[in-house]
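--- STAGE predict ---
source: upstream dedup step, 1 unique chain passed
mode: sequence only
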Amino acid sequence: MCLRGEGPAWEELVKRHTRRVYNLCYRFTGNASEAEDLSQEVFLRIYRTLASYQAAYGGFPTWLTRVTRNLLVDHYRRTRRDRLTDSIEDKLPQLEEKHSAGRTPDRQALDKELSAQVQQALAQLSPELREAVILRDLQGLEYGEIRLVLEVPEGTVKSRINRGRIELARVLESMGLRPA
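--- STAGE serialize ---
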């Protein structure tokens, strides 16, 4: 329906995928307003190129992630600043619900501190490893979807995820954080 230019269908598409796009943009920029701007750019790009989407090459969320990733790569090249990644808030469901009644102020402070430490650790990974870990562990994409997004062989995807996880664990341990 979006392909036929129906406004309500486009609104539903944006509504359904805004959080995913914003989270990915924020993970790579570490800046909320920059992530909002980039999210808007992604949806403008999607709107202009929606006719080029072909389901035979993967599902719409995979295509959307690829478009987002390509825009982030362009942004990274333009700015030449190291991309930062989002905190663990989206990885742990209990951290996603910031306004949960069960979270005491002490717990919120601990969660915020942990999030900052994980973000700092992720920022120390190379962009290739960080990207693979984010797409797999924080975005929840399957290996085949990541292969399509990154445009590398699936073996490379698995290798980057494995190396990224090992490096992330090493960095976290050097920061004094150990798995529970």
